[in-house]
Amino acid sequence: MTQENTTATDDNGTGVVWHKGKALRKGYTTGSCATAAAKVAALMVLRQEVIQQVSIVTPSGVALSLNVEEPLICGQTATAAIRKDGGDDIDATHGMLIFARVVINDSGIITLDGGEGVGRVTKVGVGLPIGDAAINKTPRQTIEAAVREAIGPNRGADVTIFAPEGEERAKKNL
Q: Among 130, 145, 150, 172, which residue carries the largest CB count within 10 Å?
């Protein structure tokens, strides 16, 4: 039996993948970071207390427990960040802080937008309207579901995902 495509779990839930006899540490996506940041920011607003760690389950069913960085609460608004870990397959976002700002309201509706460092859709064909934040369908769904879980069925929230280093890193990646 080869270890070509097997996966094992390590201490933080991200796991390892065996490729050509070598164990490669798995990381997690920018979407997972945004989901975790939005969830913990929503929870912090509701509890009015700083939370240091948050757990989510990724769309592929992997449970992640992630450390929260730069938590801030101000009334009905909270901001939190999760540091992106690309594992052994790093990309331009590896090590970058992915932030979410959540403002709780009574509308019953969750809105999602991108702020600093998050691109905008410029062409037809990616399944999002031109001008919208370049946050793909699956991360949009997981962010909204995590916030809904945190705030319950009746409250609303305005969620903004931002990455202050995003624009500078994108320039280096082109």
A: 150
